[in-house]
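Bug: token stream looks shifted between consecutive jobs. Job 1:
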Amino acid sequence: MKKWSFKYLLFFLGLFLGLFFIAFQEEAKAAETTYLYGLKESAPIEEIIATLEGKSLKYNFIEEIRMLSVEGDSKNEVLDKYDSSIEWSGPEQKIEVKPEATVAPVGVKEKITSRYDSWRWDINRVTNNGASYEIEKGNHTVKVAVVDSGIDFNHPDLALNIVDVGKSFVPGITTTQDYLGHGTMVAGVIAANGNLHGIAPNVGLVPYKVFHTDAADSMWIVEAIVEAAKDDMDVINLSLGTYKSLKNKEDQAVIEAYRRAVKYAVKEGSILIASAGTDGYDMSNPKGLAEQLGAPDDVQIHLPGAGLSEVVTVSATNNLDQLAFYSNFGPQVNIAAPAGDYGENYETLGQMQLAAMTITTYPLNLPQSELSQYAGFEHGYEFMIGTSLAAPKVSAVAALIIAEYQEKHNKKPTVNQIKKYLYKGASKVTAPKQELGVGIVNAYESLKAIKEAK
């Protein structure tokens, strides 16, 4: 069989399920109409806001991190007289979606034998074939914020675990119902409880919607992180990412906004889990990353994962416990989780193996892919791969650690304690640390460590 080029494969996949996205990348737009400001502690906030209102300018102020966004403004105009009160500033930048994901049944050689259970190799890896369920399945007092495209409230595997409608940060959109698919996929990995079982099938889910179409403002994501922390979310899942320049002054505002939001969330007791990205890049040093991105004279980092040390950064592994071909890697990676690929024969024979991919939940309001139909799935389940499906596995284990620790000690663990048990329980595999961090996340071993601790 003729081997497909990877670019052609992605194009073909997009025809069947163009709504699944794994990585996000920001691009500065030539006609930005919104400016971001990081205000100092001493800034006269009320006076600045009064000035903006007097000019009838739309603005948004996040008090917790002293971040201000002003629509239709530039730093040299309205806020010029407050320059001494501004710590950093720069134009807002969009995050755009790159489609990727399920495959059509071309090159598939194995026979379909079971609708659901036989495909759950990734969940089995993390739960030790379900052994972790015997210790802890989670509960609704532990909540995971899914900062994404929303969640399908009507999905039978998810509906009972959505404990709050959450909030939309997309202007003009009040619903947190998922119309893209990505957030529902992430939610299923964490807490599906029906035909599929997530890693923490009884944990609470809350959607924080930052994507409604294929683009989002940085401000929406930053604000969602802060709001989730204020809402006392135990875990904040960020299956998204972007590349930012350390040299470009315009990028500094976005970098600092993320940094402030993350620090605030950690201070409030939330642990943040983010995907490493799906470009297959070596993130070992900013200059090398920039070269891979086609900017040899620049230095760049990946955000929010990898670029911020407070965030737990997750790479993806395949069904052979190796780094997946698409996963970014580098010393910034803390831990890995299984998220599948196209199988060991793809590169050599051009054959895709369904057993090497993963399945999870998908919105009922979106079309079912041909592959899902071919596999005999009901509407609402899809095959997929990507670091976006690795991060929520770690988020789910973090939620289980919190639940088990609370039951044993009658108090919530600190962020550092959660990390300690995450890393202590990880399955050690033969791989460079820069690829998989401390190893592959393992719910059973992490929970066992809590039970055995004095």
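Job 2, same session, no restart:
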Amino acid sequence: MPPRSLLRRAAPWLALAVVSTVVGLYFASQAYANPDIRMMLSFKRALWINLVYYWFWGAAVPLVVALARRYRFEAARWVRPLLVHIGASIVLSAAVIVATELVLKEVLHIRHSPLPVVLRGAFYANFHSLLPTYWLILAGFYAFDYYVKFRDREVRASQLETRLAEAQLRALRMQLQPHFLFNTLNSISSLMYSDLEAADSMMTRLGDFLRLTLESDGAQEVPLGRELEFVEAYLEIQRIRFEERLVVETSVDAEARRALVPSLVLQPLVENALRHGIDRTAGGGRIGLSAAREDGRLRLRIANDGPMASAEDAASARLHVGLANTRDRLAQLYGEAYLLRFEPLAAGGAVVTLELPWREAHEDADADRRRRTAGAPEAAHAAAAS
């Protein structure tokens, strides 16, 4: 047997020996500190008596644990376990006294007193004080057993919660792609009757976009720079549709490009700006996309200069499939540590602001995975999403 395996098997017995010795030393010092007892026996004698008694109790612990597991106290069945443990405590206490006195008679060379006399004195002096030892061991086992089961339940609950979050995030992610595909294919279908070349070009751009999607490793979070590639591929498709009517202005700090964001988080926000802003104006308009680090958080803003947004627009945006999925994904990933806000602009159009906890792509991979799958509620508040 390997030494490590042997040590693992011996560890509980070593622990019992150490604890029993410490308890014996404690009670020996307590007895010797009593002036009445000190007059009758030396410290050596007090030490031997207490050590042997508690060594035997240490050896009896596995039996107490076995009885505790076999006869558990339950709400509907507690009478029989109680009777069993009462009987076991009496028998074990008596057995420890007899075994200890037999050993002490040889170790301390007690030859002048007959064994029955020694045992009678030991029972009178020690039985009532030893009896609670059984119940303390029993209570200690139940407390430890409850703690272990409680920790196991916590771990299982955490694992189930993580798996549920992963499943929900996968489902939400899969909902985004068909939604985008439906809208793009609908645009291609319309262009087939008016501009075949534009429809062909849009199909090519759609292929590029899908290639970027398929090249994704399935991570829930990606660097913002990589996410901007998805948005650019999406906007290339929309530029074909809007032609000169669409102008895109991008202002992204170099530092912000390293920040982690949920994958495919920008596309539904940009689509919202197109549908509820630029698409409503005959002359087209501008979309502004900016990203920067502010107060230790990543702030993203997607603005459009279309018609002035109203309260009805905001309500409609909240019901929008893509944005509803975005809000759900953010809640799964960040708990309450994000902000997603829709605001009409006085000069016309609207702006969507997204704030996320600042984390860069080079952070510890294990921490990233925990945050991606289980979410990380931090000190912040979430506003209603557009």
